[in-house]
Amino acid sequence: MKKSIALIMVLCLSHSYSQSNYQKFKKLSAPKKRWVILHPSKASKALRISKETKLLADSIGRTNVLDKDKSGGQVDAFRHAYWMARLHQEIGKSAARSLGKAHEKENYLMYKKIQLEEGIVPDKVSSEMDLFNNDVGLSLTRKGIEVSKKSIVYKVINAITTGKMKIIKKNKKGDFLTCNGIIIKKESLKKKWKNNKCLVTSNYRRN
Q1: Which of 54, 65, 151, 173 has the fewest CB atoms in 10 Å of its CB?
Q2: Which tens digit of pLDDT belongs to each residue from 26-80?
């Protein structure tokens, strides 16, 4: 099976992928490998936009524009929405959405292996948040229509600050809360895909 995938990638991606990128492909999760195989001509753009998004989100996370929370907070929401907006702009809505879904499938595999994403093991609520924010991001651009990156940043931040996106409910200390405002003990979250975390609007103010 691995040899078959490798052969497909050599045939499909030789025109756009360097050897170093092929090595990166081999390290991808199964869901993302499938996406690349189905979208060979769009893979290099998706990789470039993914790197762009991470750098931008990290930069914004160091400012006071949003809440600085990369895991379940506004910066997390920004990362997903901007990613989808840029992908929609350059590779189309369907391909962008399917890549977002592949990412969430990857997160489920990470949960199964107890691997961290932004310092926390992924779970069902985080995945629901990401998919919701992905859809918001997809609505902010159109394929082929030129909109500056700066304008997209403003659109995403506006969507967050006006409550059009979702974040996970926490207090100022960073403790996860139930929808009733009760602190969720960290021990109760271990090795659980489903838990009592609560999604709230992205303009929710932590107390």
Answers
A1: 173
A2: 888 999 999 999 999 999 999 999 999 999 999 999 999 999 999 999 999 999 9
Distance in angstroms (rounded) separating the CA atoms of residues 96 and 88: 6
Q: Could you tell me the residue range of the domain that residue 1 belongs to? A: 1-41
Cβ(49)–Cβ(83) under 8 Å?
yes
Residues with Cβ within 8 Å of residue 34, at least 6 apart in sequence: 102
Residue appearing with tokens 């490998």: 33
3-state class of 122 per DSSP? coil
Residue 24 and residue 81 in one domain: no
The dihedrals phi and psi of 155, each to the nearest 5 degrees, come to -65, -45
pTM (whole model) above 0.90: no
Q: How many domains does the chain have?
A: 2
- Whether residues 196 and 125 share a domain: the answer is yes
